[in-house]
Amino acid sequence: MIFETESAHMELKGKTVVVTGGSDGIGKHVCLKLASEGCNVAIVGRNEARLLEIEDGCKSAGAPMARSYACDVRDPDALAQLCKEILEQFDVIDVLINNAGVWHKTSPLDQIDAEILEATVQTNLTAVMQLTRHLIAPLRSRPEAIILNVVSKSGVVAQAGQSVYTATKYGVRGFTEVLKADEQDTGIRVAAIYQSGTNTGMFSKANEDVPNHIFTEPDDLADVVVFMLSRPPKIWLHDVRVEI
Fold first, then answer.
1. The domain that contains 75 carries what CATH number?
2. Taking a C-beta distance cutoff of 8 angstroms, is the pair 170, 147 a contact?
3. Contact status, residue 206 vs residue 223, Cβ threshold 8 Å
4. pLDDT tens for residues 59-100?
5. How far is CA 207 from the centre of its chain?
């Protein structure tokens, strides 16, 4: 005998999803997975050539609509313009995935360059808050909506040499928790994923030599993201930790 549950999984097909850091790593695989689920995808990143490749890949994978946006998320004016363009072109937004992030080479605080410190804070924390601030009202207007922050294990565990990076991730964790409280009476569900090291180019971009081959594969992590998005409200996974 088959029993029907009162609440079904969230239907992803036809939903419009904004993904930052979508041209590479975790974000790239999340975009492609969501496209295969029939989502419309707005892909945000910095590398225009890679963005166009992912846009084409999303269309081939089944996205009814996929558009890419080259944007430096550290620039508040550029972020404001980005959100305006996305809303004009997609009309509605159902899901925001804050995934963009940068790494600084593990070092004592006084050996972290001032420009790297500022870029890390602006990319990993300030941009998350600014982008969410611009899109939260359109998300509230939807019957059901999701904000998912891809944070990092560093938002939970303090590790030597990561002072600035960890500060940004603890910041996003706190931001996420307050958003949950602020939006508890709206249609927005808020969640965060705290993943261990992932096999992406993030470390090499910061000239950090790490054993990437032992880390979580971004394609597998993208499966976790899609699983989280598809949960019904009664079993909403608001805090998921992925360990290697």
1. 3.40.50.720
2. no
3. no
4. 999 999 999 999 999 999 999 999 999 999 999 999 999 999
5. 23
